[in-house]
Design brief:
The chain has about 375 residues and is α/β, with parallel strands linked by helices. It has helices at about 10-25, 30-35, 70-90, 90-130, 145-150, 160-170, 195-200, 200-210, 230-245, 250-255, 280-290, 305-310, 330-340, 340-350, 375-380, and strands at about 135, 155-160, 175-180, 220-225, 255-260, 265-270, 275, 295, 320, 355, 360-365, 365-370, 375. The chain has three domains: about 10-110, 2-Layer Sandwich (Ribosomal Protein S5, domain 2); about 130-260 and about 300-340, Rossmann fold (3-Layer(aba) Sandwich); about 265-295 and about 340-383, no CATH class. The strands form four sheets. Strands 1-3-2-4-5-9 form a six-stranded mixed β-sheet. Strands 7-6-8 form a three-stranded antiparallel β-sheet, with helices on one face. The chain is elongated, with a radius of gyration of 26 Å.
Length: about 375
């Protein structure tokens, strides 16, 4: 069969058929968005002599199931009406759960409606003079830009003014934007989307990305979380991952979310400089300089000068894409890592604890050991 990534007449028929069947079953004129947002569905249909709307065959354009056969809308609509109605009558518990989900979505939508306009008006005013966003010139949604330029569009989400200042000065203004957070963002776990509009910083972030109504208008191909590689930085990273997974999971599923890797060490002598992202790279660099090296341990992004930062976000940029396995249940993940199951989470942290010894070498013969500190990076790798 042909996988139609852009949908088509069969998908439209499924979406309309489900809405009509649910309304008929419950005898309520529920909003289509509340119904569709409560159901995940897939459709496979056999169409004789199919017609596609493009040469890539990613969108079905056929109106009928085949010559002298019923329309796709009628065929699928009748099928959905009968089978879904029968299923919900057979499974009253699931029918009650679905009704509760629809009603919850309806309540949340009405709550948001009361503050959405005010929040959007504030965001529009703030965007004109938004000190948090240092925008780029070319975006993913730029109509006249070349494809390679649109796909290069990137926004770095940074913590604090020092880190954002270095990235801002070193960035490529054509493709790279910077959004600066004011410390740690709000923990969104268990909250409704209403909080996105109530919280000024999160509201400005969703407007900067332009994803309020979906990914169709996403302004940047790559959304990059750029935090320090310490415990506080990892916490901020986790809070941002929670925000995107909770309210904009498709941004993650579609491969737009990344983590910026930054060097932990600078190893140099009078002639050469190496930037090292791991202890192994550090040791290799020391060996390459034959042991006569000055080693600097970077504690935060703010310590890296703009001139040096240009090497890390240019052609040699290292990005780790945040990926979700097909069988990943986002609700379960967020509940496990951000919920109230403190004993289980504590056990996981202890089992996966990493201890690093911070070494600063003035020359080949002197190594100073500083305090040991736990790393929670393993936790993030499991998300």
């Amino acid at each position: 069969g042909q996988y139609t990534t852009q949908g088509g007449t069969h998908l439209n028929a499924l979406r309309d058929g489900v809405v009509k069947a649910i309304r008929d079953f419950y005898g309520k004129n529920y909003d289509a968005k509340d119904i569709r947002g409560s159901i995940i569905a897939a459709i496979s249909v056999r169409v004789e002599e199919p017609v596609f709307e493009s040469q890539t065959k990613t969108k079905l354009g056929s109106l009928n199931m085949g010559p002298d056969r019923p329309t796709i809308a009628t065929y699928i609509g009748n099928f959905i009406k009968k089978e879904l109605n029968d299923y919900l009558h057979r499974e009253p518990e699931i029918a009650n759960q679905l009704k509760a989900r629809i009603q919850q979505s309806e309540r949340e939508r009405k709550e948001i409606a009361g503050i959405k306009k005010l929040a959007n008006d504030r965001a529009k005013i703030a965007n004109v003079h938004n000190k948090k966003l240092r925008d780029c010139r070319i975006h993913l949604s730029s109509a006249k830009a070349k494809p390679e330029d649109k796909y290069a569009s990137t926004v770095f989400i940074t913590e604090g003014d020092s880190a954002s200042g270095s990235i801002t000065k070193a960035r490529n203004v054509q493709h790279q934007a910077v959004f600066s957070l004011r410390g740690k963002p709000l923990n969104c776990f268990g909250l409704t989307k209403k909080i996105v509009y109530q919280n000024e910083e999160l509201n400005l972030l969703q407007h900067a990305l332009n994803i309020e109504d979906g990914l169709e208008t996403l302004r940047y191909n790559r959304v990059v979380i750029a935090t320090d590689a310490d415990v506080d930085g990892m916490h901020i990273r986790l809070l941002l991952l929670t925000f995107f997974l909770q309210f904009f999971p498709d941004l993650v599923r579609e491969g737009h979310l990344y983590i910026l890797e930054t060097p932990l060490f600078r190893v140099r002598d009078k002639k050469q400089t190496f930037y090292c992202y791991t202890d192994k790279e550090r040791l290799d660099a020391i060996a390459a300089l034959r042991g006569k090296a000055e080693i600097t341990r970077f504690k935060g992004l703010g310590e890296i000068s703009p001139n040096e930062f240009g090497d890390f976000i240019g052609e040699n940029i290292r990005l780790e894409q945040v990926q979700l396995r097909e069988d990943t249940n986002i609700e379960d993940i967020l509940s496990y890592y951000m919920g109230k199951n403190t004993p289980q989470r504590q056990e996981f942290i202890i089992e996966n604890l990493k201890v690093e010894i911070d070494e600063v070498t003035e020359d080949a013969g002197k190594v100073t050991e500083k305090k040991e500190e736990p790393h929670l990076e393993e936790l993030l790798e499991h998300i």
